[in-house]
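Lab notebook, entry 114. We have the chain sequence and a SMILES string for zinc ion, and the next step in the workflow is to get a structural model of the bound complex before anyone spends time on docking refinements. Request logged below.

Task: model protein plus zinc ion, output structure tokens.
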Amino acid sequence: MDHLTREQVATLTADLDRELRKLERSMRTTEEALRPVKLDQTAVGRLSRIDSLQNQGLTRNLQEREQAKLGQIVAAVQRVEAGTYGTCVECGGAIRFERLEVFPETPTCAACSP
Ligand SMILES: [Zn+2]
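Result returned:
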């Protein structure tokens, strides 16, 4: 990561840390939302039960996205420790600081980004 100054890496590492904490908080909320739906036959009608099952489907999608992001952040932290942070895992080129500021967890440069 020769193209990044030590200060820039420190800034991005702090960003990663903040993202990680934020993600951990929202993942806890998601997990709570995924607790089994209580089927209260008397108070809750059939429609609202379908509603809450649909909501759980959406929440499950959210959880998948959160888990994918968590994996990216953890991998980015590992690249910081390995000294390869800021290097594109696809082409080995430098990832611009401006891109890392927006996506500190990104493993690829803009050209290799899907
Ligand atoms: Zn690349």
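Notes for the group: Residues 88, 90-91, 93, 108-109, 111-112 surround zinc ion (CB under 6 Å). Worth checking against the assay data. The longest helix spans residues 46-82.
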